Amino acid sequence: MNTLDAKVATEIDIKTEGQFARDNYLSEHTVGSWLLTTDHKRIGILYLFTILVFFTIASVAAAMMRIELLHPAGGLMTSETYNKLFTIHGTLMVWFFLIPSIPTVLGNFVLPLMIGARDVAFPKLNLMSWYIFVFGGLLATWSLIRGGVDTGWTFYTPYSTTYANSHVISMAAGIFVAGFSTIITGMNFIVTTHKMRATGLTWFRLPLFVWSLYATSLIMVLATPVLATTLALISVERLWGVGIFDPKLGGDPILFQHMFWFYSHPAVYIMILPGMGVVSEVIACFSRKRIFGYAWIACSSMAIAILGFLVWGHHMFVSGQSVYAGMIFSVLSFLVAVPSGVKVFNWTATLHKGSIHFTTPMLYALGFIGLFVIGGLTGLFLAALSVDVHVHDTYFVIAHFHYIMVGGMVTAFMGGLHYWWPKITGRLYPELWGKLAALATFLGFNLTFFPLFILGYLGQPRRYHVYPPEFQIFHVLSTAGASILGVGYVMPLIYFIWSAKRGRVAGPNPWHATGLEWQTASPPPKHNFIETPIVTDKPYGYSAEKDVDLDLASI
Amino acid sequence: METTNASPTQTHPVKVYWKTCAALMLLLALTWSVGYVDLGLFNLIVAMAISITKALVVALFFMHIKGSSRLLHLAATVGIIWLLIMLTLTLSDYFTRGWVPLNH
Amino acid sequence: MSILTSPVSENELVADQFDDLEQQRSAAQLGMWVFLATEVLFFGGLFLAYTVYRSRYPYDFAAASHHTDVVIGGINTAILLFSSTLMALAVRAAELRDRKRLVWLLVGTAFFGIIFMVLKGVEYHKDWTDHLVPVFNFEWPEPNPEHPQIFFWLYFAMTGLHAIHVTVGILVMLVIAFLARLRKFTTGNYTPVEIAGLYWHFVDIVWIFLFPLLYLAGHR
Amino acid sequence: MGKFHLFPPEASTTARNVDALYFALTLISLFFITVIFLAILFFCIKYRRGSPADRSNPSSGSNLIELGWTTVPTLMGLALFTCGAIDYFRIERKPGNAIDVQVVGKQWMWKLQHAEGKREINELHIPVDQTVALTLISQDVIHSFFVPAFRVKQDVVPGKYTSEWFKPTRTGEYHIFCSQYCGTQHAQMIGRVVVMQPQAYERWLKSGEQTESIVRAGERLFHGRGCSGCHAPNSKFHAPLLEGLYRKPVPLADGTMVTADDQYLRDSILQPAKQISAGYDNIMPSFSGHLSEEEIMQLIAYLKAIGQQEPPQQ
Predict the structure, then answer these.
(1) Residues with Cβ < 8 Å from B101, sequence gap 6 or more?
(2) CA of B93: which chain C residue's CA is closest?
(3) Which of A284, A413, C70, D291 has its CB surrounded by the most CB atoms within 10 Å?
(4) CB–CB of A243 and C35 under 8 A?
């Protein structure tokens, strides 16, 4: 720890027996201080509670689906209800949990701290983005209360526009509004990263989490508007039947798929890129070693953001898209996998000659690498044209994207949450329970989703609530895994609440990490830094040789 | 801090603004008159070329892109580049649909 | 920092997350340009639909485009170009701290915006009486009206979305003109005027592309 | 069908190639997974905190290694792409002499009709070792005709003919699934393909009540619905001649050329103004709503039949 850290600690006289810096950002407790705050740290916490609500609803929907699939003839519910459940699970998870979670919770909290700024570039816009997000969420919930949507989160036409008799327009309006919250967050992060870095903090001294947030913000800003137009066109078509996507009136349903996937594939990179940023931070910190290939990882984030826009056609190989367009999208889809591979290789190389601490964030990060490798490689199966003809729209695809979304993104979100929890609340979570939860999610996850690869190649299509009897064994395994996974996710909820009040006081830098966010008190004062730090050298200045004991064992 | 090189005063003499306006009006007249000539497919290409020049004139002089930082140049063009990505890759599907004879 | 000694002290102009006026101004400019990129793609979805359907039904698009009123369209384009010029002069006046001229130029810009909207209204009314409004009273002389109807819902979607943006622009212009009268933007921080200018020029550029695509699809 | 197995039956020529590429991909993935898993395990054990390993001058990057694990995966990716693309091209191109079956997907059932006129619901009886080509269209929403045993799937799009072919290599019964979500009973829109010996197939074709072939049904419609009123050679209306038209280039009113394939014929019946032939004006009424999808397919089969003859000399 350099001298600056010591000076900051004494100045705000942090004591170990539970007394924090007198005026930190959490010291005010009035309702107005929360609902009218423009402090990026509080807005991050507001987002945390909001996405927790949607995550719970969507997880309950998933649990009910898994129970329904226990028996080939179903029977727990009608097909109508099942269709509405997988739509709830899809829409709420994608737009109200996966896309906002790391950028708006961890990103909002940590980005200004990491670059030595007092706040994001446009704090009032930041608060407005939360209100827009909540308004969008209410619209979506209103659609569910009125009877839900049964089109799947993909809203394929002409079913969603002409044949579905469920509340598509109110759900589309909810997502349309939530989209603007993403656009504002993305724009905010881009301007903050460009214009508000501390002195000496050049681009190639930025932590990799900031790089991944910057790349994610580019996608947020450039992809989401097309989603807004597409959803508006669906609502117009559904209201007035003008023939935008209706083949009887000259429209083309495949045009909808082009416009939808132009947004939705980059959207999956919005979900995974911040997770990769968290893993880079956690691996470097707990291997006590400078990350391997810093510039390559930073540029691979940018490469993923840009190439991510060129590959959407691999969702449409059997949709009637032309053969040559399929080939163009297939070769580009193989190229977009390369930067992800570069990241995984660099993380693994970072462990070499490190001094590895198996703390909870590290377990989540290593879990991320393992599951993301399987998720990423099965993506190549789907990019290969002839294999995709067989496995498209089957459980193989379900397994692939859950390995990326749950095995990758949610694991990284948990890792990031544990890693920055001391900075957010000033207290440490119980390490033993953290490790148990990480193991439970890892095992539960694999038992839930690995059998679905086999089931997928056997040919069971997705979105079926009844299926041929010979596939039952895979569904039973998957449901068993889902229950373990559920337990693995509930445990952190419990011990985080416990630790927020009675966890051990963490002090400014419990992990002895090198980021700027660890140079200030935790929880940080309102304006983050007593005086803006000056950055002098490259990030991740760890030294494995002179490794210090983090005395975590005692937590 | 990144050295911001947005020049403090970006103003031009009033004459420049009115000359730009005149140029735009001229280009509008050109677009309008070309619209009456039957050039078949070239109608679209010519119309788009003139519109692009008009848009460039507005962006360079009225929006002060001329002489502003490279970052703003990038921010100004990135939207159009992504729109072109969307157009070209989608049209690559529509224009090559008939090439593999489906049923003969 | 600013040329003249400003009566109002520096730090009242700068929001507290920024260090100085220059950082605040360049942040606002970059933020606006990023927002304009999202607007380009927001209109882009409609331009994509237009391109695909025009390439599928070129004959019907040309025929339908003949029914639009190119005179009003042309005049409207000239009006928007002219109001763009006034806006640019307004930004110049703000930088030179010429309050009176700034207020008049802003009001002038808003005024021409309103004229654009009035002409737009006239044109929409004419389309209504000519039975060209899809869904509600669309009648088409030749058989098979579906494809011309596609042109017209695109016409109303694109010009409608543009009209909403023009209305927002007019309101912003009037608010800024009102604040300018209260000496808000002539004491060194004229960023809001500059940002409003960027937005207005963008709205003008969108119309520059809409005019040939909708009014001159094929030849007249 | 029915008994438990870990791998779908390999019942068509396409299945062999797709499975080969699938195994190649699985091997490559297993290779990368084990390499990375072992590397992580080794490093975690060797360099765990407090272990006596040598940690002097750790390297934080080497462009050579980075170039290595960027170019090698790119080359492997391109190789895999090529294999996939070659097979895909073969899957998408319909071979010549095949048994034509017309498939209409309708919300929540499959209606199939053989060239000889035999109709089936949710079932498809075909002979083994003969290529079968399906022409698919949907009456309402997008469905997808998926036979896992043949490793073949094709979306069934309303308003657009799509095609799919397979050559079964083993007799038996195999699942048909609808794999594109199409509404409430999406999970019930399933069926079975019955692959039989050629003699059994012939007997099956003859069994049941005699139905007229598709071409004759198309001819009956051609005259019944008034098409012959304008399109007969001696008609007094000025309408394009349909004899010898099929797969020939057609000059259009707006100067472009188009080949008269199934899609052109269908669009001309339902949306005549879409591609008007040169020298004719837009007087043909639209038949959309008056003809069911099966009737349109029968009409097109008839137009294909007369399309092969030489056009009568004027």
Answers:
(1) D93, D94, D261
(2) C52
(3) A284
(4) no
